Amino acid sequence: MTRIEGYNFAYLDEQTKRMIRRALLKAVAIPGHQIPFGSREMPLPYGWGTGGIQVTAAVLGQQDVLKVIDQGADDTTNAVSIRRFFARTAGVRTTTHTSEATIIQTRHRIPEHPLTENQIIVYQVPQPEPLSKLESSRVETTRMHGLAEYGLMHVKLYEDITRYGHVAISYDYPVMVAGRYLMAPSPIPAFDNPKMHQMPALQLFGAGREKRLYAVPPYTDVRSLDFDDHPFRATRAPHACGLCAATDSYLDEIVTDDRGGRMFVCSDTDHCETRRARGHVGAQALAAE
Amino acid sequence: MPDETLLSARGLSLRFGAIPALIDVDADLWPGEVLAIAGESGSGKSTLLNVLSGRLTPDDGVVWYRDTQAKLQDVHAMPQPALRALHRSDWGFVQQNPRENLRMGVSAGGNVGERLMAQGSRHYGRIRDQAADWLTQVEIDVARIDDLPRTFSGGMLQRLQIARTLVTHPRLVFMDEPTGGLDVSVQARLLDLIRGLVRRLDIAVVLVTHDLAVARLLAHRIMVMQRGRVVESGLTDQVLDDPQHAYTQLLVSSVLQA
Amino acid sequence: MAYVAVKGGERAIDNAHAWLAQDRRGDPAVAELGLDQIAQQLGRAIDRVMAEGAVYDRELAALAIKQAQGDLIEAAFLLRAYRTTLPRFAYSEPLATENMQVRRRISAVFKDLPGGQLLGPTYDYTHRLLDFTLAANGQPPPAAEAEAETAMMPGVADILGHEGLMERDIASDATPADLTREPLAFPAGRDARLQALARGDEGFLLALGYSTQRGWGGSHPFVGELRVGEMSVEITQPELGFPVDIGDVTVTECQMVNQFAGSKTVPPQFTSGYGLVFGHAERRAMAMALVDRALRADELGETTGAPAQNVEFVLYHCDNIEATGFVEHLKLPHYVDFQSELETIRRMRADAMREAAE
Predict the structure, then answer these.
(1) Which residues of chain A have pLDDT under 70?
(2) Would you say C117 and C105 are in contact if contact means Cβ atoms under 8 Å apart?
(3) Apex B36 CA angle, B31 and B42, nearest 5
(4) Most C-beta atoms within 10 A of its C-beta, which of B60, B256, C98, C281?
(5) Which of A129, A254, A258 is nearest residue C111 as measured by Cβ atoms?
């Protein structure tokens, strides 16, 4: 795709990128702590990944290889839209293969294939404040983070166990970073949380509408909140992928008819395709042959 | 500061605009003792409580607290995080209106367990057991442990607040009219409970009340306040049986006539 | 110069109107806007005015927009006032949206579902870069065409309802409230609330819906389904005994799927928020569904206290015709009341200054 005329590399001007990178440095220095930044209006609406896009734009270089996923898939409309945006404004090489990418921008999933020290993963974050559902005032939550007063969240977990027998949070499950800051990992399924712990790659988080950045440096402790006698469990649908037979990847549920017919498929499309290319075949793929 | 006192205040003064709320007030509290601050509304007693507990800053004067390491702390010079931590551990504050100190949307057990969790407890079963134990100690039916405070009566809410406050075994508890607004029979039961707990757990209490009967029942010593000043202080029985200051005499005689 | 009492109010108003008409027309050398141009090329403005004016008539809406110089609340006001003059002669059958001739249908809760994800004509994935080629006018290249989807397109509410995962709406024979005939009364049932929201100010609904997402009374919403398409409106005349098609309307329907209620013993179910509006108006339909759900908080036993959950606050202030009327009425003369204020403040100031001097 030819680069669009009249815009700087990756759309943002260099001063803005510098401002974002300074904020990112602060974020990396204080893992899990939210750094306010002067988020700009972007050509995609707030809520559609402007934070992630600004972070990617600020760290992207001409030699980078970019992968963009949404819900784990490269071909969902928003992932296509964002990938196209960077192809037009930066002209960088793009890929759908996790292992080939140097920067991965993601909405709501962490790729199944483990990431390396040479990669950066950029998360799109709708709500950076992990306490937002319990305390609507940002003034108050800022104080709570500053004083490490997280009683409100502990009480919520206690109440869940009392009412449901287990914690009723299935995505955006709150984590403690480096033993100090409570952090919202973005609406990834709880299943993905363990991947964040001691991850070799740099993890950057951008919330454009809320105007916050945060980061988890490589090899940092990230622990999902739980109780000793009710430990965190990463749950997934108890099925194998209908296309590649994987039993350890996160699955999408596809409705096939209105009588309750269902099929389960890897949400990570690259992971699934790679497995199929290696000869793994799932039950529905067999049935189709 | 006199030896061995847990809390001492000297020369406290505070004005709200043109109105003097506290005028040169001194106070001392020894470990395990209950000190009542008595007076009518407008006397400054609640203001004094708030200054002693660090919630209000005085214009003049100092409040010293002797911590668990026997080290003296200037309450109003402490950094905010340290003061807040103190309020969650060694100190407690019982409000007149329990709704201000409870999470009304959280179960009784969650309310009591919160301080434990804030201090690092991570075992659900044990937190729940301790909460259940405390509910029993404040005479709330353990079967209500999962109920929301919305369903509790006024007296029960107050007892729940007390459980929530005492669960971390504070050494010093501030109480602002803890029985205010409750029916007389409920008050009596609650006072009995407080007296029993305070004695058994050896807690020092600063208690604000307009009701001399409450002071007589609970307090070892009493300070009588009028318009921002302490007009008389001493052992509760002595002051109430033989009041020296005219205002104290007036207060005591009003009670007798009632 | 001696004071002369202000006169000539009527002439002033006439002059104001004449000037307004001129202002509205703009430069006479520029071609006048045709109603067909507005109807064809400003379709979203038409949709908004029909929704808030509570009248489905595209041509009338175009006229209102022209007359209001593009002020859409003013245009909705014109339609509402016109509505008052219309006689009512029938109620339609309820719209069965599962029979919609769908132009656009998406679901955020399933990757794929029967009937598929149809993007339709949407702004969603456009990049908001000003397109200067539009300034030059011209024909857009023709869009690809295909056979219309005829496969079954069950609603997501039904798909989830199958497994009992989502609460079901219970059909009722009771007469629904009618906000166009009776004043709002409390407690307001869901029927009255939805009516108020359907014609409420889009900005207000949007802000309230937004607030629920940011923690002011949240309910973890997902777009179960969003549909845009055409529906035929049918009435059943008693003499005929069978329904008669009297025309088509375009509607947008949004089914929000929200957090479950339930416990260890009561099987939890997803709860619903619903939005249905005239025209192609996704923002409005979605905001309406968010606010509908928030207003059900009390009924669902949730803690309330957020603005979007406050039924009186929301319903009393969502009608922008009422709102603009009252806000703008402050421009009317109030000098009689103000005079009494002047006297009071002068007296109080005199007292205060006298006391300070003492």
Answers:
(1) 1-2, 288-289
(2) yes
(3) 140
(4) C281
(5) A254
The H-or-E segment that residue A222 falls in is: strand A222-224
Residue the block writes with tokens 């809320």: A210
CB neighbourhood size of B89 (10 A): 16
Report the residue from C110, C124, C129 with minimal CB separation from A43: C129
In 3-state terms chain A splits into helix, strand, coil percentages (rounded to 5) of 30, 20, 50
- Whether A228 and B110 lie within 8 Å, measured CB to CB: no
Task: Quickly state the pLDDT bin for B258 (edges 50, 70, 90).
Answer: very low
pLDDT tens profile A232-261: 998 888 899 999 999 999 998 888 887 778
Question: 10-residue block means of pLDDT along chain C (358 residues)?
Answer: 58 88 95 96 97 96 97 95 86 90 94 90 87 80 83 86 85 86 85 96 97 86 95 90 93 92 75 96 97 92 88 93 88 83 86 86
CA angle A180, A182, A184 (to 5 degrees): 145
Exactly one of A49, A52, A272, A282 is catalytic; name it.
Answer: A272
Please state, in angstroms and rounded to a whole number, the distance separating the CA atoms of residues B254 and C19.
79
> Residue C229: beta bridge partners?
C102, C251
Catalytic-role residue among A32, A51, A206, A242: A32
Is the CB of B28 inside 8 Å of chain A's CB atoms? no
Q: Which of A52, A241, A242, A282 is catalytic?
A: A241
Annotated catalytic residue A266:
yes
Instruction: Please name which of B235, B240, B232 lies closest in space to residue B256, comparing C-alpha atoms.
Output: B240
Does residue C177 contact residue C189 with C-beta atoms inside 8 Å?
A: yes
Q: Read off the DSSP letter of residue B196.
A: H
N-terminal to C-terminal alpha carbon distance within chain A: 36
Return the half-sphere exposure (C-beta side, CA atoms, 13 A cut-off) of residue B72. 12
Q: How deeply is B36 buried, as exposed, middle or buried, from its count of CB atoms within 10 A (0-12, 13-18, 19+)?
A: buried
Task: Quote the pLDDT of residue C53.
Answer: 95
Query: Do the chains contact at A78 and C119, CB–CB below 8 Å?
Result: no
Q: Give the distance from residue A195's alpha carbon to the nearest chain B alpha carbon, in angstroms.
A: 23
Show which of residues 68-87 on chain A sit within 8 Å of chain C, judged by CB atoms.
71, 73, 77-78, 80-81, 85
Instruction: Please tell me which residue in A49, A52, A206, A244 is annotated as part of the active site.
Output: A244
The pTM of this model reads 0.81
The alpha carbon of residue A26 is apart from the nearest alpha carbon of chain C, in Å, by 25
Q: Which amino acid belongs to residue A120?
A: I
* DSSP single-letter state for residue B51: H
Distance (Å) of CA A26 to CA A19, A21, A174, A178, A215: 11, 9, 21, 15, 9
Q: Which of A131, A140, A154 to mutate to test the interface with B (most CBs of B within 10 A)?
A: A154
